[in-house]
Structure formats: C-alpha cells, structure tokens
Design goal:
The protein is mainly alpha-helical. It has two domains: about 50 residues, no CATH class; about 80 residues, Helicase, Ruva Protein, domain 3. It contains nine helices and four strands, in the order H-E-E-H-H-H-E-H-H-E-H-H-H. The strands form two sheets. The protein has a two-stranded antiparallel sheet with strand order 1-2. Strand 1 and strand 2 form a beta hairpin. The longest helix is centred in the middle third of the chain and has 16 residues. It is elongated. The chain starts with a helix and ends with a helix. The mean pLDDT is about 90.
C-alpha cells in the first residue's frame, strides 16, 4: 500500500514488472491514528501518506439533527434493496431514534433500517416497533398509560383528527374526578 501511495506502482505476487497505477485513496477509521502511531501500532510513514486531507466527521450522537434525514434515506435504500415498500416513520418513533446514542454509528442505523423495513408491520414504523435497547436508551414514555396515550395520540394525528387536547382533556378530567 505504501509503495502504491509513494510511487504509484506495485508488483503482483511473484511478478517481475511493476504495474503503474493512478489512484486516490479515501480511508476512514474510528481510531485516533496519531495515538496509534505513538503507541507503535500504526506505521508512521503510512499515516503521513494517508493524512493529506482530513475530514473529521463527528459521530451520530453529536449530530442528532441529521438522524431523521439519514433514517429516511436508509429506509428508502433498504426498501429498494429488499424489494419491499418504503416505510414512513411515526413522529414518536422518529423522536426515539433521534434521542438514541447510536454507539454503532451509521452502520447500526443502516442495519436498523433494514431490520425495520422487513419486520415492522404496516406502512409506518411506530415506537413500539423499535428494539428495546433503543427505546430504553431514548426518551420514550415507559409507563403503560404513557405508552397508551402516545399510541392514541399518534393514531389520532395520523387519522387527521384535529384538536387532540380538546379530545383528550375531558377524558382525563373524567378519569381524575
């Protein structure tokens, strides 16, 4: 690899003649390569050859505003790949996914989109369709009555019912009185 980057040529295994190449290399890592070089775990000469233009990209947990757009993109891609209908995200599910920490970063998000495209029933992904580890790591209501209320509000909003508070308030008052 170093020879290709430095001289633009390489030898096939067992070959006698160099093969000329004109390539550009894009490399990505989640490791701090400067630390790895200092620890002797990454070659310094290769580090300097690769470190021409640096594009630091923060992890998803630091870019919550990008998550809804990425989810829609990868849900469409998963639907194409798996030959299924594209699923929409219910607002509560989208909020839960935006609040999740994404320790597996974009790979985890892509895999979740594939999983939900196949396993979530219906044409919309709801908060209850999300894996428990995501719901547990997000700010999603956890008590039974909160889940029931959230599901009711989501159904009512989707069906086009307006003034949800006007519908819900009398029910709450009756229950509390």
């Amino acid at each position: 690899m170093l020879r290709v980057l430095a001289e633009g040529e390489f030898y096939r295994v067992g070959g006698q003649t160099p093969i000329q190449v004109d390539v550009r290399v894009i490399a990505a890592t989640h490791q701090d390569l400067q630390v790895r070089v200092a620890q002797g775990l990454f070659r310094e000469d290769l580090y300097h050859r690769l470190n021409v233009i640096r594009l630091p990209l923060p992890p998803l947990r630091e870019r919550a505003e990008d998550i809804p757009l990425l989810l829609r993109h990868y849900l469409r891609a998963a639907a194409r790949e798996l030959d299924v209908e594209v699923k929409a995200l219910a607002p509560l599910a989208e909020r839960a996914l935006a609040a999740y920490g994404w320790p597996g970063n974009v790979r985890e998000l892509v895999n979740l989109c594939r999983r939900l495209s196949v396993l979530a029933p219906g044409s919309e992904i709801r908060a209850e369709d999300l894996p428990q580890e995501i719901v547990a790591g997000a700010a999603v209501p956890q008590t039974e009555w909160q889940r029931a209320l959230a599901a009711w509000a989501e159904r009512a909003a989707v069906s086009g019912e307006g003034a949800l508070l006007d519908l819900a308030l009398p029910q709450f008052e009756r229950t509390l009185i």
